[in-house]
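To the wet lab folks,

You asked to see what we're planning to order before we commit. Fair enough. Below is the target structure as tokens, and below that is the sequence we designed to fit it. If anything looks off to you, flag it before the synthesis order goes out.
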């Protein structure tokens, strides 16, 4: 047996020794409720496979290094509820070893994605409403809300380890909106200096460690 096979077998042995059927079954039932699917459906089976892959990764199985991220993304994109995420996290802690932070990262990422997706619908409604407000304050508010929308989209992609080019595009769009908001304050308000941020420094490659 080679080294990879040995590590794989050790990971499987650890997983089997720590497996908690009660917690596993409870999570499956919670998934079924959140996904509005039958317990035996393919959607629930797919979700549980992701949980198992993450648990195996925490047991140092070499084939599932980013399983936690796939599980977190699935939870965030499918509006899996906080109690279900908490139950998954508690279950994963059974397998997480010292200095391994992937169960913790799963919890933080899935909850951040969930709340970010929830906020996007609200933000876009706010953008639409502010677009109808007359005067510079309304226009500035519109630009700021639109900037928040783009920046939230960038944050979502960062959490999912998304494409850096796409993330840059969203950041650029957000900054353009933010700049547009500052222009409104400088051009139209009675106190333009309040909106002058020309001294703000943006880091570049020279700041890289």
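Sequence we intend to order:
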């Amino acid at each position: 047996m080679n080294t990879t096979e040995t590590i794989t077998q050790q990971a499987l042995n650890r997983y089997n020794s720590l497996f908690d059927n009660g917690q596993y079954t409870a999570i499956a039932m919670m998934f079924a409720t959140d996904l509005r699917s039958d317990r035996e459906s393919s959607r629930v089976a797919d979700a549980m496979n992701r949980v198992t892959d993450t648990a195996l990764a925490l047991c140092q199985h070499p084939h599932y290094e980013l399983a936690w991220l796939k599980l977190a993304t699935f939870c965030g994109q499918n509006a899996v509820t906080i109690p279900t995420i908490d139950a998954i996290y508690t279950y994963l802690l059974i397998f997480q070893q010292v200095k391994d932070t992937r169960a913790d990262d799963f919890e933080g990422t899935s909850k951040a994605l969930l709340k970010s997706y929830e906020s996007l619908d609200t933000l876009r409604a706010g953008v639409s409403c502010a677009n109808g407000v007359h005067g510079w304050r309304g226009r500035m508010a519109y630009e700021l809300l639109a900037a928040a929308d783009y920046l939230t989209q960038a944050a979502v992609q960062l959490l999912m380890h998304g494409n850096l080019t796409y993330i840059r595009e969203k950041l650029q769009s957000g900054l353009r909106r933010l700049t547009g908001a500052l222009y409104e304050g400088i051009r139209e308000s009675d106190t333009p200096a309040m909106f002058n941020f020309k001294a703000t420094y943006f880091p570049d490659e020279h700041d890289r460690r």
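Structural context that might help your review: The radius of gyration is 23 Å. The mean pLDDT is 95.

Thanks,
Computational group
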